[in-house]
Queue: 4 jobs
Job 1
Amino acid sequence: MTGPESIRIAVEQLGMTQIGHGTSAIQDPAVVALLRDRQVTVEVCPTSNERLGNVSSYQAHPILDLDQAGVAITVNSDDPTFFGVTLTDELSRLMQEKQATLTDIKRWMGNAFQQALIDDQTRQTLLQELHHA
């Protein structure tokens, strides 16, 4: 939320493997490449990012650009009680307003399962169910 340089510092100096929100990464192609090359997952919350002013509009949200650049993306709802948006709502909105595809959604959910704090057997079961859906 404070710019791409803070993301660079978090990855290079602190060794972070996940970045919350991370929308400003798109402002610096070198930071996008860093995220991609180090396989850092960026957790995005498009509605929250829009409402908090981290992006100028929902349409301007860089989720698809980051994804297309090869950055591992997960979609999150941030705070459903505060923002009134569930994960299902967020995914539906992405499909309706950003033309995200079912393939995109599956990839993002797969990324989330890869990062989840769960045992490997549960992770594999979830990934198998996802890929057979």
Job 2
Amino acid sequence: MRPLRVVLDTCVLISGLTGYGASNRVLEAVLAGSAVPVVSREVFREYVVAVLHPALEPALLDALAVLDKLWRSAVKVEPIVAFRLCRDPRDDRFLEAAYAGGADHVVTFDRELLSLRGPGRVLRLYDRVVGLLTPTEFLRELRASGEPTS
């Protein structure tokens, strides 16, 4: 069985870098190899811009080291299918990366993205189904799959 593939919303990445809650455990699990991150250039660029924002508290070198490890372990994709499902088109890039990379889940606590999910906490994107999960829900999914969650 292949490891779960996951797209992390930027809000989860930043929360994971700055906090100790579920987002931090998700980030640790992904960095430990319990799930494989999926990123597009647009998604990763958003990560970098967010980490470099002056309002953030984490040590910059630590955050950049996390981004480096995330990049090295990621499935890198170039989406060719565009979605226009979100009011904020920047949120669509996470769905596009998930679709292109065959991701099992997008992990987010963005209310608009979460509002797109139907029964089973999933969203059908043409021929694929992608889970839209909060960090806590994703940790439960990892445990259920037998993967360590830190």
Job 3
Amino acid sequence: MNNIYEDSRNQIHPTAIISPFAKIGVGNIICAYAVINDDVEIGDNNEIGSFTVIGGKGEIRNGKNYKGKVKIGSRNLINHHVTIDQPLTGYTVVGNDNFIMTKSHIGHDVVISNNVTISSGANIGGHTMVFDHATIGLNAEIHQRKIIGSGAMIGMGASITKNVRPFSKVVGVNKVIGFNDYKVKELDISTEQLFLLISHFMQDFE
């Protein structure tokens, strides 16, 4: 990549702004004008796109004395113009092997598990939990404090104000249209495993 400063640990563009208090692993690519603030921990082999802001103060009315942390795992592709917010206390978490597309927003206290796809323009409200292998469609809106189950697929432009069961397909305003058959097949999940998974989480869903 042109104009990238290379050291023994990471490739960092000279225009990137990185707090001296941030903790960054190895093998990361941090592109032009990315901002990584205090209280951010980043693992290994991530790519962070241009103009992305990690650890900006969460949008909390009358929020003061932010002490929470943002934890990013490893092997994530975080594209340009993404925002991942710092909580007042506790953690905002992005796990491993996630694909986070341009102009998407991950609010304060959100937990993104592993192998999640978040499409361009998606907004995930604070305190939401998104479990493994879920897919969030283009410009989808997730209300705060919701649970998106493993393998769920949220359609383009959907408005989610209720919890979403594992491997459900949801479009429009909370409209469930069946199972995410593609993901079930991709992960080679049996009917019995699927039933057990849904039953295990049922108590958490509305």
Job 4
Amino acid sequence: MAPILSITGLSKRFGAVVVADGISIDVSEGEALGILGPNGAGKTTLFNMIAGAIAPDEGRISFCGEDISRRSAAQRCRLGIGRSFQIPQPFGGLSVFENLCVTGFFGRTGGRDVERRSAEILELTGLLAKANVAAASLTLLERKRLELARALAGEPKLLLLDEIAGGLTHHECDELIAAIRQIRSAGVTIVWIEHVVRALLAVADRLFVLHQGRELAQGDPRDVMASRQVQEIYLGVEGQADG
């Protein structure tokens, strides 16, 4: 079966700075892929290229067998690519429910049955009681949940999560993990950038590690985390043997 997302030779430079250098990776439908890497490794730039926020200098991005390398972000959203942002970006003056409705109208199904679907997503993400509250008044956890809910409102086939667990307490992180597992069980493919490693390990089938814009390692999460290179570069642990 062809992968739902295929990235081939993706490169991006900003002046003399290379932030993505020949990245290639396939993601299978229904898979949960975790992406790790130190700050500045090129993780968010990779997401921006997948989502259509910036164009690659070289390489190809295919989604559901279609070359989307030059498609706009709006077109990719309608095709079924949804994303959250590291810093939540809700419409602060709108209610939580209205935030979802706006996203739903521009998503894959073009707003079909958007109110019912929005209510279901609010229940899934634990925000139903906040449906009529202004988004600007939410707590950090609630804003994180809204960011996830807004991404889901477009009914994505592929969900890109950018450090959505950052800043949460242990208990809050567990609640988020439970919600993401439920989303994945509904058939949504997930690619998740995260520094909270235990969150990734609770969900991901596979890890992909970036360093200086290049692939450092990928594979089974236990094998990747036991890698000496990963421990030295990402975790800052020296002198560990490969496990």
